[in-house]
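Instructor's aside before we start: the two examples that follow are unrelated to each other. I chose them only because their records fit on one page, so don't look for a connection. First example below.
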Amino acid sequence: MPTVLPVTELQRNTAALTDEAMRTKEPIYLTRRGKAAVVLLDAAEYDREMSYRKAIIEREKSVYAGITRGHEELRRGESVSLDETLSQLADKWSL
């Protein structure tokens, strides 16, 4: 369960909350008027999260580019039927 505190708690106990975030590697949600306002997170954990997010985005872009390339090849009539592909594979691998 994430820690949720009013933002005034950060003003009163900055060092303690910073230590907790660094120790637990978990986010601390700070609220203003009962609504989420900011998140306090260990810097190394933040960097890991952003690195992971970036890797996912790059992979998704690569997949999307491949799908787009395939659609363009189909549009240009540069496709090969499944039967032809299976035959080529069988010939290549002597199946």
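Example two begins here.
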Amino acid sequence: MIRNERLPEPASFDEEVRSPGNAWLAQHPDAQPEAMPALWRPVAHHLAAGFKNRCGYSAMWTRRGTVDHYLSRSTHPEKAYEWDNYRFASGEMNSRKGTWDDRVLDPFEIEDGWFEILLPSLELVMIEERIPINQRERARFTLKKLRLQDDDAILEQRQSWYDEFLNGEVTLSWLARKAPLIGRAVQRRLEDLDPATIADEQTHWRWFLEEDLTLKGLRRRAPRLAEAVDTALRRPDRRRARG
């Protein structure tokens, strides 16, 4: 998970969603969640744009995002048509979250640095010393219930994004936009490179970091530097070993 800023309510939200939704609830006080009209769908694109089309829980770009009711409709029907209760999530994460509600960390309340991806395993770990004491149990609960740490399915998703970068199909900047936790993991490894390795390749290094040059391009134009990068990315992170 990464920090997401709270989003301004769309201008048409009250007219299109809140007012008709609450009117319907008043007429159907005992309605089950699946019966509630999905009036939030027309504003889903506003939510997706605010999250940069990245799931608020897995922190990866998703083609099939959904409107997650942070406080679920079954436990808090009065929040079903409230903008401040919506989060953008992949269908899989939305399903895993279910009715755990605020026992799961809120993407609007966490801070960057609470979680990190380890390389090359791509496991997600919480950085306990950065998380307030009163939030640590929720952080553990979130990792467990959403299976964010090392679930096979989510590791496959991370590997897919990471492989595109390693294979030189996309730039580091692109990776950081689509899967920011993986991008940050790569950047941390690059910070450990010996400055002498970079000294004679400053131009290529800048292109690689900022946008224009993929890892494939770096291998072609600055092979010694690329070899150092590859070596750094392969180095195991011993903070945790899966299994």
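The chain has a mean pLDDT of 94.
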